[in-house]
Amino acid sequence: MRILLRQFALRQSLSSIRMMSTSASLILDYSYATSQVTEHESEMSASEFMLSGGDGIYTAMRTVCHGTRLFLFDDHLQRICKSHSVMLSKEDGVRQEQLDTEYWRGLLAPLIRRGLNRFGSGSDQDSKITVLVDKNRVAVQFVRLLGPNGLDPSCWVKFVSGRRDHPEAKSLQWVHDREALERLIVPPINEVVLIEHDSKDGPLRFYEGLSSNFFVTRRVSLGRQPEYLNFQLLSAPLDSVLLGTVMKLVLQICERDGISVRYAPEFDALDSWNGAFVSSTSRLVLPVSRIICGEDGRQHTLNASDPLVMHLRESVRKMAKEKSTQI
Length: 327
Hints:
Layout: H1 2-14, E1 25-31, E2 37-42, H2 46-51, E3 57-64, E4 69-71, H3 73-87, H4 101-120, E5 127-133, E6 137-144, E7 155-161, H5 172-177, H6 179-182, E8 189-197, E9 204-209, E10 213-219, E11 231-235, H7 245-257, E12 261-262, E13 275-280, E14 284-293, E15 298-301, H8 307-322, E16 324-326
Parallel strand pairs: 7-8, 7-14, 11-12
Antiparallel strand pairs: 1-2, 1-6, 3-4, 3-5, 4-16, 5-6, 8-9, 10-11, 10-13, 13-14, 14-15
Helix pairs in contact: 1-4, 3-4
């Protein structure tokens, strides 16, 4: 009953929203105290929006099928609940119902639906939707994704020493911690990937991007068909990174298709790498064509058309509708 009343209040609060936006983004704010929603257009990027969030948690999702469906919505609801349990406490005002995915479905679905109608009307572009949650409010930002279907053909990444705390939760503190590293992301660099020794005398390993997961491929055989089965996928150990929604989908595809996965991300094996990619909500699977390493800017070129990367990219694209929700 509480969820139904909240949905009714949201519909009433959102009924005055106009139907078309020409700004860089649209932001909806829902107040726990008043159950009211305010709305404003903004020129903020998604990163700037998250930096404005202070303490709390976040998740970022996207639409697919030309803005008509929400990709992996249930996974994002589960992530909000998990991040709540890890990062927030009863002292922060968290109630038991906020650890229930149905609570968040009832709260977020009307916000997202109305926001997409307002921001996406008249456009077949997909949108990135960022949700910020703290003890006082829920804020949702809508930003249009650029490129064909919101995807780029390939990218460069830069390796930088570092590792995130609490990788199991999407804390806004991480958004603030990574701010300085984000300044390194200038075209053609699309992402910064963290590398660090796993122990004082241990090997140097890659972990994850600032807003993505990172994978590498290497050839392990010849002559198998399809061709992608001749390659192995390398990943950071699952307990050392945030297990992103698209990362989970990639690993499910590997299990389905008999693709070998090894959780041994040794940086010293760089010369044996054939391909690589980053995965995230907005990028889906984005091939990496070049890695920039070290302070001297040493570069390593990879095959952006690696057979395994291409197979995983196309498989994720095909599953986008199947794994999406009509919103």
